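Readers of this paper often ask what the protein records in our data store actually look like. Such a record has a labelled line for the sequence and another for the backbone structure tokens. The tokens are whole numbers drawn from a learned vocabulary of local backbone shapes. We quote a single record here, exactly as it is kept in our systems:
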Amino acid sequence: MQYLVTMEFVEPGPLFPAQQLGQMVEETVLPSFDLLATWQTEGKVVAGGVLAGTRTATFVVEAASHDELDQLVEGIPWWGVMKTTVAPLQTFAKRSANDRALLERIKSTAQ
């Protein structure tokens, strides 16, 4: 199954010292990018990137189950500081087949 994952950075507020920001980038942000790039090379992440000019990452994950997806997403180092939304994707072929079946039902009831 494929899932569309969006992870948006949650602003820590104005009292977040610059030193902590540097530490967070080094210990959380960069390792997260590295992990996602590795998953992309391995095919676990099908496509994705950072929305230009934002602190939001969006990517498509290939996972066998919701549980596997949970484990993957929770394993990303920045998971705790990101607002995460996930949507399962339906393939175009499957949707087309469903809509064709719907069309046939509509046609048969119209006769």
Remarks:
- Residues 102 and 108 are 10 Å apart (CA to CA).
- The first strand starts at residue 2 and ends at 9.
- The chain has one domain: 2-110.
- The mean pLDDT is 93.
